[in-house]
């Protein structure tokens, strides 16, 4: 068997793998990036970017559809499904091309195409080539899970093939009410597709705050039905798939296509982890230290979606950098402070989870956006923001589902990262009329409960911002 030696081997050329390779190389290590396809990152190919392209088209259609409320008659919306999907793929491919250029820029001897499998703690087999490394980073990403009842369906869709549709489906049953399922469900619904969403659990968009989740669900159900806490049974029938559901609600409907969005577990099958001697959790994922990404005491590190800790692009990039650096400096590994958790779902309204969930002594401040001034101006009134703080008024987290959430969530995440109190935020400039000023009422509630001085402003008590 042919042999090859390197200092740091990185398995997987996605966002985490690329960040790990750069970080290890900057630390002075000789790297070898291994991937079975070198096709691009999940975000660019089948995730963030193509989904946002579809959402952008849907937003344009919805804007025309709702123009009448402003006294503007735009006529009936005519949607060319083929043109929509062609634009999605064309611009998606532009984003992917930049990733491919990154691959091309790597020295030929620092990348290896093939499927890697562990043969020992620091040795790999890559399609018959033996690779020996001083340390290894696992960054194999995740895959679209399709539960067994759905695997034989005709016209089955996941995020990995939905963007290859030549035209919009006639109707769509979405299995899974998480961020991915909801984003695509609303986008297709706004593009004229008959959509229903089904979730076996009770959560929506992953939100743990029941009040915010209820608010978001009510707003989304103005556009398409959302069935939660139901048992789902699919059945192939003429013309598509019949979905039967029972539980909190019950019914039956036939869809031309079914989109399964039930999660993306780590891609670990075939990796040969049993040869590493690592401790594995109940899901077969190596046990690791979140601050160093090191698996036990071994020279093996795990980053990105593969460790299932926070399957988000910015987290994957950060983890890749941490893992790559620690692999290069092993046996010295340096713990890294993790940034404030920030997860956003790009529905309309968008929703977000920030920081830590509430605890028994958490102070909660609430802002209702159903009568917020700027939201009313834009015809987007509705939603709820709940901010969390410790007993001293220090911001610790938030749950949001309101207009402008994707932007306001960053402000709260930055405030948490900067260790600011609710009073600190109220002392900062807040322009009128904006969506951001709608949060003042929630901040004041926290101040009063924490016995912090409530800063004076010209509009005391008026959370509507008018």
TrEMBL record:
Keyword terms: FAD, Flavoprotein, Oxidoreductase
Could you tell me which residue ranges the FAD/NAD(P)-binding domain spans? Answer: 7-320
This entry's Gene Ontology molecular function terms read: dihydrolipoyl dehydrogenase (NADH) activity
All copies of the Pyridine nucleotide-disulphide oxidoreductase dimerisation domain together span: 344-440
Q: Give the EC number(s) listed in the UniProt record.
A: 1.8.1.4
Question: Into which EC class is this enzyme placed?
Answer: oxidoreductase
Q: Please give the cofactor(s) recorded in the UniProt entry for this protein.
A: FAD
Domain of life the protein comes from: Bacteria
Family to which this protein belongs: Belongs to the class-I pyridine nucleotide-disulfide oxidoreductase family.
PANTHER family in the record, alphabetically?
MERCURIC REDUCTASE, PYRIDINE NUCLEOTIDE-DISULFIDE OXIDOREDUCTASE RCLA-RELATED
The protein's name in its UniProt record = Dihydrolipoamide dehydrogenase
Q: Which organism is it from?
A: Rhizobium halophytocola
């Amino acid at each position: 068997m042919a042999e090859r030696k390197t200092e740091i081997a990185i398995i997987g050329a996605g966002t985490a793998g690329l960040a790990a390779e750069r970080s290890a190389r900057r630390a002075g290590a000789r790297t070898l990036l291994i991937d079975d396809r070198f096709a691009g990152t999940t975000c660019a190919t089948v995730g963030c970017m193509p989904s946002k392209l579809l959402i952008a088209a849907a937003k344009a259609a919805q804007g025309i559809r709702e123009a009448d409320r402003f006294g503007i008659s735009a006529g009936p919306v005519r949607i060319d499904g083929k043109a929509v999907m062609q634009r999605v793929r064309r611009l998606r491919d532009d984003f992917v091309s930049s990733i491919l250029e990154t691959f091309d820029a790597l020295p030929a001897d620092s990348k290896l195409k093939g499927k890697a499998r562990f043969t020992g703690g620091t040795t790999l087999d890559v399609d018959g080539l033996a690779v020996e490394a001083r340390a290894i980073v696992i960054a194999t990403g995740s895959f679209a899970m399709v539960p067994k009842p759905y695997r034989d369906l005709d016209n089955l869709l996941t995020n990995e093939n939905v963007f290859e549709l030549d035209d919009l489906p006639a109707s769509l049953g979405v299995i899974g009410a998480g961020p991915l399922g909801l984003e695509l469900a609303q986008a297709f619904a706004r593009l004229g597709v008959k959509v229903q969403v089904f979730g076996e659990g009770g959560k929506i968009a992953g939100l743990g705050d029941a009040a915010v989740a209820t608010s978001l669900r009510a707003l989304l159900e103005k556009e398409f039905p959302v069935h939660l806490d139901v048992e789902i049974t699919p059945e192939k029938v003429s013309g598509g798939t019949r979905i039967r559901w029972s539980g909190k609600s019950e019914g039956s409907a036939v869809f031309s296509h079914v989109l399964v969005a039930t999660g993306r577990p780590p891609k670990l099958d075939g990796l040969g982890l049993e040869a590493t001697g690592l401790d594995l959790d109940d899901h077969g994922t190596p046990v690791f230290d979140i601050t160093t990404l090191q698996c036990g005491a071994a020279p093996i590190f795990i980053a990105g979606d593969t460790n299932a800790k926070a399957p988000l692009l910015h987290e994957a990039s950060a983890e890749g950098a941490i893992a790559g650096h620690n692999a290069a400096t092993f046996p010295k590994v340096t713990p890294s402070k993790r940034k404030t958790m920030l997860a956003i779902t790009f529905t309309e309204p968008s929703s977000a989870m920030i920081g830590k969930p509430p605890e028994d002594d958490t102070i909660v401040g609430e802002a209702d956006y159903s009568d917020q001034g700027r939201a009313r101006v834009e015809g987007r009134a509705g939603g709820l923001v709940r901010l969390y703080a410790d007993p001293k008024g220090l911001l610790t987290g938030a749950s949001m589902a309101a207009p402008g959430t994707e932007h306001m969530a960053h402000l709260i995440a930055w405030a948490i990262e900067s260790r600011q109190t609710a009073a600190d935020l109220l002392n900062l400039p807040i322009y009128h009329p904006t969506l951001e000023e709608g949060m003042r009422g929630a901040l004041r509630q926290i101040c009063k409960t924490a016995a912090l001085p409530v800063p004076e402003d010209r509009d005391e008590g008026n959370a509507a911002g008018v």
